Amino acid sequence: MTTLPPLAVLGAGSMAGAIVRGLIASGVDPASVAVSTRSAASAAAWRAEGVRAESLEENPHANAGVVGGAGAVLLGVKPAMVVDTLREIAGALDARAVVVSVAAGITTATMEGVVPNPVVRTMPNTPALVRRAVTGVVAGSRAGDAELAIARAIFQAVGTVVELPEERIDALSAISGSGPATFYYLTEQLTETAERLGFTREEARLLAEQTLVGSAELLAATGEEPAELRRRVTSPKGTTERLIAVLDEARLADVFERAAEAAIARAREMARG
């Protein structure tokens, strides 16, 4: 793992908090991490884990306070707050610090227009909470190999990293960023179908959830193509063949493509402000 410089995390909520805990679990010294949070209670909880923490509730300048001396700054704030947060901390940033954002729709050019630092834009997904994330990483115009290595190390602590050009990050967001919601939606639909077939809610959720989780684990364990695993459970003239035929009639591939295009269009709207 790349040796990380001192890290400041602004807005240590669910996603950024998962990243910090992943880093600590991978061997990063908690004392090398500083976080800003909204509430005093959250800051106190982080301090109990050995992390330096300040809250906006106790200190309105907490964001600027924690970035001093940091070699990497992770922006965990909501997209609408990114530009204002960067303006707030610009004077406190070390000139060599790399700024890493997890905000959807905020381009590297937008961030570079506020601070002179190297910028890296990322798009992780919520499985970061269990260290199984997929994170897209995009280098800004001032970010070189060293800055990319820092960003890669941060997100490898919570999963897999994919480097890509910025023009593809909205598409990545539609697949891996929104992908967990697609999985949960499918789980909901299978659960409701099972209930309509006479299972209790508890039984229905067990059947749907464990079938999908087990299938995903089998896919990962075998390394086989999904189509091949599907073929193995689709006996000619059997029940699964009939089920798949109905799904094919619904043209699910077209539905998924339209859904992804809608997500991409929304990301571009957000980038335009």
From TrEMBL:
<dbReference type="Pfam" id="PF14748">
    <property type="entry name" value="P5CR_dimer"/>
</dbReference>
<dbReference type="InterPro" id="IPR029036">
    <property type="entry name" value="P5CR_dimer"/>
</dbReference>
<dbReference type="InterPro" id="IPR008927">
    <property type="entry name" value="6-PGluconate_DH-like_C_sf"/>
</dbReference>
<dbReference type="InterPro" id="IPR028939">
    <property type="entry name" value="P5C_Rdtase_cat_N"/>
</dbReference>
<dbReference type="Pfam" id="PF03807">
    <property type="entry name" value="F420_oxidored"/>
</dbReference>
<comment type="similarity">
    <text>Belongs to the pyrroline-5-carboxylate reductase family.</text>
</comment>
<comment type="pathway">
    <text>Amino-acid biosynthesis; L-proline biosynthesis; L-proline from L-glutamate 5-semialdehyde: step 1/1.</text>
</comment>
<keyword id="KW-0963">Cytoplasm</keyword>
<dbReference type="GO" id="GO:0004735">
    <property type="term" value="F:pyrroline-5-carboxylate reductase activity"/>
</dbReference>
<dbReference type="InterPro" id="IPR000304">
    <property type="entry name" value="Pyrroline-COOH_reductase"/>
</dbReference>
<keyword id="KW-0521">NADP</keyword>
<comment type="function">
    <text>Catalyzes the reduction of 1-pyrroline-5-carboxylate (PCA) to L-proline.</text>
</comment>
<keyword id="KW-0641">Proline biosynthesis</keyword>
<feature type="domain" description="Pyrroline-5-carboxylate reductase dimerisation">
    <location>
        <begin position="166"/>
        <end position="270"/>
    </location>
</feature>
<keyword id="KW-0560">Oxidoreductase</keyword>
<dbReference type="InterPro" id="IPR036291">
    <property type="entry name" value="NAD(P)-bd_dom_sf"/>
</dbReference>
<keyword id="KW-0028">Amino-acid biosynthesis</keyword>
<protein>
    <recommendedName>
        <fullName>Pyrroline-5-carboxylate reductase</fullName>
        <ecNumber>1.5.1.2</ecNumber>
    </recommendedName>
</protein>
<feature type="domain" description="Pyrroline-5-carboxylate reductase catalytic N-terminal">
    <location>
        <begin position="7"/>
        <end position="105"/>
    </location>
</feature>
